Amino acid sequence: MIVDGPRDAWVGGQYTLDVSFARQYHCTFELSAEGPPPVAGVPFTCTPELPTSPGGFVSSVHPIYDWDSGMPCAVGSDSGEFPSCPFGGYRIHLLSDPSAERVEVRLAVGGVVLLEQASPLEYETFQPNGPECGPTCRSASVRMNLAVP
After folding, report:
1. Residue 136 contacts by C-beta under 8 Å, 6 or more apart in sequence?
2. Which of 68-72, 97-101, 112-116, 128-132 has the highest mean predicted lDDT (pLDDT)?
3. What's the CA gap between 60 and 84, in Å, rounded?
């Protein structure tokens, strides 16, 4: 599941993210209103802990930079930021339990609800090593978008 939002949709403050896949998760994170966000993203904590992929995928709030702006987007400081590349917004990317049939999301900051949406999960089956070799994988993707208030 992906939640995207343009820069103006995100304000500084304490966020809550309630997600229901096959289980309910309550997550929190904080965004600063000052300066560009760190390249590595803003980590968040969830109760219970969200599942991770075998490759170690960890959920976080990632900044979206405009790589096609024509401006240089090289790392410009020891703090790991992109100060010269236009910051376009944030993306939240979560992995779900593969048994989930739908996802429900509620994102709020300071008690103000920014997004409340539910969507079915439609899975595709694929075999990355070909039809004669395992494993057989299932994948579903849902994209939700924040609007500028």
Report:
1. 125, 126, 127
2. 112-116
3. 23
Contact present, 142 and 21 (Cβ < 8 Å): no
3-class secondary structure, 129: coil
- Beta-bridge partners for 91: 4, 62
Smallest CA-to-CA distance from 92 within 3, 13, 15 is with 3
Q: What is the mean pLDDT of residues 49-71?
A: 68
Q: DSSP class of residue 146?
A: P
Q: Where are the domains of the chain?
A: 2-145
Asked if residues 68 and 79 have their Cβ atoms less than 8 Å apart, the reply is no
The whole-number pLDDT of residue 106 equals 96
What is the average pLDDT value for the chain, to the nearest integer?
80
